[in-house]
Amino acid sequence: MYTPRLNWIFLILFGMAAIGVFVAALLIPPFRAAAYAPLRELLLPPPAPVTVTVLYSTEKQAWLEEVVPAFEQSGANVNGHPIQIELEKMGSWEVINAVLDRKRQPVLISPASMLQIAALQDTSTIQFGRSLVNPADTAHCRAVLRTPLVLVAWKERADTLWGQQPGASLWRDLHDALINPQGWAAYGQPDWGYVKFGHSDPLKSNSGYMTILLMTYGYYGKTSGLTAADILNDSAYQQWFLEIESGIGQFEHSTGPLMQKVIAYGPSTYDFVAVYESTAIEQAENAVGRYGELRVYYPPATLWSDHPFCILDAEWVTTDQKKAAQAFLDYLVSKPAQEIALLQYGYRPVDTSIPLEQPGSPFDRYAANGFRADLSFLPEVQVPPGSALNTLRDFWARNVSR
User: Looking at the chain, which terminus has fewer C-beta neighbours within 10 angstroms, N or C?
Assistant: First the structure.
């Protein structure tokens, strides 16, 4: 039988428990997450979030906007403090420039390729006396998604220029077609006008930069060992390179709008364009039934857009932010996030346990358009040192930029 005395005992015990919870939550932040929720909300403010600001390249916007809420709702925390991700999109080279100019002070950066990370490593070392990134430190800087550069072409035009498949001379063949004053008439198709090629702006877009780097490797017929001297001191290369670029009327600021123009206007605007494989997959359905068959062709040596996420080694990044950013990176390479990237957005997962050819995969759906899951037959070009990367970019800026 309950008595007034027992009621007082229960009240005192409850009060002691509440005080214990309060003190424990104050002294031990991780305890807050486990504290009795209504009591915690009445007596304690919620733990302040650890905010991770992310500057990222625009190509992966849709994927990030899908996976970030799932990560934040997963309960990930640092010492009981929830993790909050703040996204800001830019062009890949704009990300690097914003960090170097101190216009932004992010915790994480994610350009489209390790090419930009290599350039940042070189430039920040010169500018600040130390590098803001360390690509060799895979705990703080790792590739999260992969997609190669490809050529997208209207099949009839590609068959006329190359036959069934372009060979090792792809870039030289394309150069010769672009500078031929007869245009397509030299190949028996006078009604097609001039040969039209396009890529995005290398000063703003990673795919444009990847294109001019693969062109340069293609000219020299090698896959490694590219140096700044190759670009600066070889007048024959410079002439060949500028002849290709002079035939391009407009350089789109990013890959997506370039591919959209291919679909919208057809071969009257572009016969061939260099874009990401994932961008071509994204637009494959939209191309059906418009201007003939649109196909993808893989260059004789490939270069990967590997979407690194790198935690900056900068004075504005706190220890807790580094821990939070690492937790976020772990989530991005987890199987659920990687499967979304493949099945919905056409990226190749860095998790190699996820098969590319599976039900619903774009590599199954669009195999007839030339997409190939297995690229092991293609050599991969070496990422040159930052000095060579910056020299190629500067050469383009001085001689082509418009």
Answer: N
